[in-house]
Amino acid sequence: MRLLLVEDEAGLRDQLASRLQEAGYSVSSAADGEEGLYLASEYPFDAAIIDLGLPRLPGIEVIKRIRADGTPFPILILTARGRWQDKVEGLEAGADDYLVKPFQYEELEARVHALLRRAAGWASSTLAFGPLVLDTRGKRVTVDGNAVDLTAYEYNVLEYLALHAGKAISKSELTEHIYDQDFDRDSNVIEVFVGRLRRKLDPEGSLAPIETVRGQGYRFALTASPG
Amino acid sequence: MNLSLQTRLLFAASLVLTAFLGLTGVTLDRAFRESAEAGLRDRLQAHVYALLAAAELTDEGQLQLPSALPEARFTTPGSGLYAQVYDARGEMVWNSGSTLGLAPELPQNVPAGQRSYANVRIADNDAIALGFGTAWENGTGKLLPFTFSVAEDLGALAAEVAAFRRTLWSWLGGAAVLLLLAQGSILRWSLRPLRRVGRELHAIERGQRERLGADYPQELDPLTSGINRFIAQEQARLERYRNALGDLAHSLKTPLALLRGQLDDNRRSAPDSGGAADQVDRMAEIIEYQLQRAATAGRRPLAAPVALAPIVSKVVASLDKVHHSKGVDCTVEIAPGLRYRAEEGDLYELIGNLLDNAYKWCESRVIVHAWQPGTATGGIGELRLRVEDDGPGLPDDLSVELPIRGQRADSATPGHGIGLAMVADLVAAYGGSLDADRGDLGGARIELKLPD
Question: CB A16 to CB B314 under 8 A?
Fold first, then answer.
């Protein structure tokens, strides 16, 4: 999942970026509003974390312009100002949630997570596809109740495909959303991850969770279980 | 005495006008009366001269007057004009026909060439009499003194004066009425700008205008443009002040966020260092609370009333977005036209904190109800705002401890405490009261009473 982080305080920005990267997100950071807006128009983000008190272009303005461009990704506001008028203004401008500084990092990650799920149309943090269940909060996967041991990258590929279940996702889209911008974009790596995922999730070949769509990429083929 | 300016001016001016017209009337009355009396005296003198011209002294020293005198009233009995002639011994030597049966006492023995006036009563009427002393030389060259006395009834004069008075006072009265009416309308016209200021200030307070109009008379212009500047600056000042507070919050809390993050990192290596993180949270909460208190505008002069329903619906829309997955069913019962005289940011703070708590703690139901018990009387009126939810409700001791200054009410219910403390402070700033108890939905019910 690719995140945009716009925060002017360098210490906090680096701290958040490194912790989000540790959690498996691909993070692009911007130090001011204009840079943030530029990045938002250049890269396909899955979500953005935007501080309201930004130099050069206020956070509210960044959000308004992002929405005016028709970009739909969820936005989480960070704000030092707890005033309700500001929060309401930010949410009205197009943000989806807010967090008042200072916050616990876990709270931030949980909010980002919830936003990503909500954007993909999932109400709960557990994505169930018959025997295959993803716990997106704990980043755990089970098949028929048995835990499957996945690396962070493997999990991220699976989660991205599962959140966009039924849609064909190209290798380049996967690369963009899984890796940081400075990562070596070799589409063969994705093929390797998908191959390992198939073996780990479905050793017998009876489930076939990930299909290859010729010329287009991959598609998560299982349908979500109700409830 | 709290009389209106118009009443004062009208009262004072009427008093002065009445005194002036009264004095004028009295003066004119006296002047007329005196000149009428002077005219009467002149006439008496003329009658005396006419009698003198008609009189003749015989060689025997007898004074003779013709029976037909030029003034017919001398011959008509009781005509009001009387004449008598006395000799030196005071014996009446002649009397006019008009004195028949009356025998009036008129001035006698007046030295020759002198006049003597007297007020007498003739036939039960006041009369004024003139005695004129004369000396006649008879054939032997001896001087014989005679006194010619003439009297005229004052009835005619009194009638004349009365007629004049009637005319005078009716004209003066008419003039007074006209002047008072004119003065009243001049006052109304002159004071109209002041009444307009009052009306427009009232309209500003009711939110029907934003500022006072232009084209006031130049005496009022400094006042009205001053008020307009005050209204504009008041809002700008609050805006600046809040921005400064926001900047302060930003510059204090961003380092706190950084510190908080580093403490979290440390805790992963040293699990016992959680106390410092709690202190950071507490600092942040105190900053938040104190900044919010500082940013409270409270009751401001000339603040227009703010419509409540749009604020509530915006806050509800925001909270619906934030608590999307919870699927809260929020019922808003607020009349569309309901307005309350408070600063908009303060209302956001009140409603935001109350609803945020309700959304956090409810199972699935929240009810917001606002009403104004006093609107029947036509005023903007006091405001009642009630928020209830179907959550676990407030801890029992919380309702007693409100308002809580600068600290959490109960660490077991983070969020409820600080939010409610903020609400309680805001309510106090508006001189209102807060009641917290258990509502019909089973959860917390907070009811605010905010006075007009």
Answer: no
Complex ipTM over 0.95: no
Residue B105 CA to residue B126 CA, distance in Å, equals 12
Q: Could you identify the residue written with the tokens 């407030």?
A: B394
Of all residues in chain A, what percent carry a pLDDT higher than 90? 24
List chain B residues with CB under 8 Å of A15: 258, 261-262, 265
Asked if A92 lies within 8 A of B261 by C-beta distance, the reply is no
Q: Which of A19, A86, A101 sits opposite B257 (nearest CB)?
A: A101
Quote the pLDDT of residue A40: 92
If one counts every other C-beta atom within 10 angstroms of the C-beta of residue B34, the result is 10
Contact A87 B318 (CB under 8 A): yes
Give the span between the Cα atoms of B288 and B280, in whole angstroms. Answer: 12
User: Cα distance from A85 to chain B (closest Cα, Å)?
Assistant: 6
CA distances from B203 to B210, B212, B246, B441 (A): 8, 9, 32, 41
Picking from A52-56, A117-121, B260-264, B372-376, which range would have the lowest pLDDT averaged per residue? B372-376
- What's the average model confidence in pLDDT over A183-205? 79
Residues 6+ apart with CB under 8 A from B169: B25
* pLDDT beneath 70, residues of chain B: 1, 268, 270-274, 375-380, 396-417
**Contact yes or no for B325 and A19 at CB 8 A:** no
Residue B373: cis peptide before it, omega within 30 degrees of 0: no
Q: What is the DSSP string of B296-354?
A: ---S-TTPPPEEHHHHHHHHHHHHHHHTGGG--EEEEEE-TT-EESS-HHHHHHHHHHH
Positive or negative: CA dihedral A162, A164, A166, A169: negative
Nearest CA in chain B to A117: B325
In degrees and rounded to multiples of 5, residue B127 shows phi and psi of -145, 160
> Which of A15, A53, A88 comes nearest B250 by C-beta?
A53
CB of B353 within 8 Å of any CB in chain A? yes
Pairing of strands B329-334, B306-307: unpaired
Residue located via tokens 């983000």: A45
Kindly state the tokens that stand for B53. 């011209």
**If you ran DSSP here, which 8-state letter would residue B445 be given?**
E
Q: How many residues does chain B have?
A: 452
Element (H, E) at B6: helix B5-54
